[in-house]
Amino acid sequence: MGGGLVRLKETRRRLDDDNYHRIRVFRHGLATLLEVDELQTKHISPGPLGEQFNDQQSIWLGHAPSTQNFTNTFRGVLSGVFYNGLPICDLAAGLSHRADVHVTRHADIQYVANFRVRLAPDSVFQQILDDFPNLESTSFHDDESAMHESPSGPPGTPTADVAAATVTSPTPHGEWIQFPPRTRQLTDTTPSPLQSHVNIWLLVCLGGAGLVFLVSMLFLVFHCLQRKRNEEGGRQHREAHFVAAEQLDYPREAVCK
User: Fold this and answer.
1) Is 200 domain-assigned?
2) How many domains does the chain have?
């Protein structure tokens, strides 16, 4: 997917027993879900590794011919593969079209519109095939939808006889499995002790600075009012002194006359 290899710790399961096995991989952000038959393995990447395609130009399904990441050729059936909500098989068969998407098939790859696999009556896949006719002809490729639970029960031994049988009614193109719901955050949002202490001291410092600013403003207002009051008191004192001086000079002028 262009984000490097993602290694999952899972229980070993033999797949070379000449039987068909259901292998599914779901990616939802940093979360990866691997299913091998009824065995599920969940993994969450610790960082941005595998989160996006990283400008990947070519996406290989079933085989990677690169010399650095060489894989063996996949022999089986790929179904329920979507690209931005469009089935890859429909794009490859020409049933859907997008100008920015070009699908190239190898010579030994066939597109089967109605694929039926012959299974044993007690096979774990039998219930899945019985549920297909009940599905509506809609796409279930929704990141926020809930995941349909797999049927419980002991897995059987499916036969290896596979045929593309002709059916009377067309099989709807809908994936019976859905992405896991986003019920929890993919990243750990628990703050570290150091971050908690830093936040507490930051709040204390901001509170202290606000208190000092408020006290300074109150002191400035009090100082201005006190200064204005002193100026008014001094002016009244000077006016009273001037009136008293005039009253003392008046009798002297009268005596001289």
Assistant:
1) yes
2) 1
Report if residue 159 sits inside a domain: no
Number of Cβ within 10 Å of residue 141's Cβ equals 19
pLDDT at 201: 83
Q: Is 55 helix (H, G, I), strand (E, B) or coil?
A: coil
Q: Is 224 helix (H, G, I), strand (E, B) or coil?
A: helix
Distances from the Cα of 5 to the Cα of 43, 207, 214, angstroms: 13, 49, 58
Cα 144 → chain centroid: 10
| Distance in angstroms (rounded) separating the CA atoms of residues 199 and 213 | 21
Q: Quick: pLDDT tens for 109-140.
A: 776 666 666 555 665 555 555 554 443 333 33
Between CA 115 and CA 94 the distance in angstroms is 18
Q: Which residue has the tokens 């490859």?
A: 92
Can you point out the beta strands (E) in the chain? Answer: 23-28, 31-36, 39-44, 82-83, 86-87, 116-117, 162-163
Tokens of residue 255, six digits: 């005596």
Per-residue pLDDT reduced to its tens digit, 190-225? 555 555 666 788 888 999 999 999 999 999 999 999
DSSP 3-state of 210: helix
Q: Which domain holds residue 235?
A: 196-257
**Is 243 within the bounds of a domain?**
yes
User: How far apart are alpha carbons 149 and 184 in whole angstroms?
Assistant: 18
The alpha carbon of 256 is separated from its chain's Cα centroid by a whole number of angstroms, namely 106
> Percentages helix, strand, coil for the chain, rounded to the nearest 5?
30, 10, 60
Contact 6, 44 (CB under 8 A): no
